[in-house]
Amino acid sequence: MNLKSVGLAVVAIGLITFFLPLVRIQTPVLGTQQISGWDAVKPSDDKARGDDQGLLNALEKMQRDLLRQKVRESPVAIQQAQSLVVSLPLAYVSLLASAVLLLLRKSLWLRVSAAVGLFACVWSFLSVFWLSSGVKDMVAGAGGSRIPLLGRVTQSLAEKTSVSPEWGLYLLGCSLVVLLLFSLAPGKK
What we know:
This protein is mostly helical. It has one domain. The chain has nine helices and three strands. It has helices at residues 3-16, 37-41, 46-49, 55-67, 76-80, 84-104, 107-140, 148-159, 167-184, and strands at residues 21-27, 31-36, 162-165. A three-stranded antiparallel β-sheet has the order 2-1-3. Helix 7 packs antiparallel against helix 8 (148-159). It is elongated.
């Protein structure tokens, strides 16, 4: 097996993660949702999606259902999470570009493409972790300070709420790391 085949196999594994769970949202209100790249881009209406509502729709529903008040400005961490709409597709486009560059034997551009994809994946991880803290802040702040009982309930809900990367995102990151290391390895590609 030559090195080009190995590199293409790594790219294929990375591209398959598009259909695997990338982000998990766990809340007492919505339950557990796993969101893949396919969930974010697939054309569908709300009835066909069922429980799988996508990351942004789930956050909007949580804010409406949990806060039950005039929509406030979202925390910065929630607003920043919208960068996932750019960073995740950028990681996948970098993988596709890397496959083409592997076939064209453009090792310098392969390194650049793999590095850009890895940067986008790392940014996605940071965004998910920051989003988790923002969701907890949003849920905890829903009780307000006027009603102590409601404050304790929302604090309890905030502790049970989490947003975390799923194994598909970890596999995507590993694929990009291996691809970058592959592009830096001496030898004929």
